[in-house]
Amino acid sequence: TSLGNFTAEIFLRQVPLTAANFIDLVEKRFYDGTHVHLLAPKMVLGMGCPHSKDPHSSKAGTGAAPDGSAFRAPDGRLVERLPGGYVRDEVGTEQLSNYAGTLAMINLGRPDSCSSQFVINCDHNRWADAWELESPASHFLTLSSNFLRTSLRHVCFALSSSCSNSDGRAA
């Protein structure tokens, strides 16, 4: 990031397809040049939309991984992304909560709609825990342990509470 690098422990065993999808996008440098496109006060920083490479794009927050692309699952099989660049839903067997400082992939509130967008949780967003939801509302699938070091965590809180427009887009 422009604030420096961060390291995340990715839960490949707990959510193998979601994690492998994210790792593939990182390794292919998909996220290079993207910007934070969502700043929700004291809640989340949203990233990973290819349209956010233009920080002023009105399409920021609507993009996905390349349509028709594929990645390797941990078991070695090739997994093709669904039309639109999406990945099949995966809740996992462990209930990984969206604690402050965790990284999570965004589900758009419809089946099989996880793709490239992710959030850094700035608060414990238990309302977005996939297993807590009775309907297919938008949720976050936790991908990592609490990884933000103190300095980046303070930046996360500062940015999310003071630098957004009234519509929640990055200023």
Would you give an account of this structure?
The protein is of the alpha+beta class. It is 15% helix and 18% strand. The chain has helices at residues 16-27, 150-162, and strands at 38-40, 44-47, 70-72, 78-80, 103-107, 114-121, 139-142. A 5-stranded antiparallel sheet has the order 1-2-6-5-7. A hairpin with a 6-residue loop joins strand 5 (103-107) and strand 6 (114-121).
- Which secondary-structure class do the elements indicate? alpha+beta
Mean pLDDT: 77
Spatial shape: globular
Helices and strands, in order, run as HEEEEEEEH
Number of helices: 2
Distance between the termini: 17 Å
Question: Residue share in helices?
Answer: 10-25%
**What's the story with the biggest beta sheet?**
5 strands, antiparallel
Unreliable residue stretches: 134-139, 148-152, 161-166
**Beta-strand content bin:** 15-25%
As laid out across the biggest beta sheet, the strand order is: 1-2-6-5-7
Total count of strands = 7
* Rounded radius of gyration (Å): 15 Å
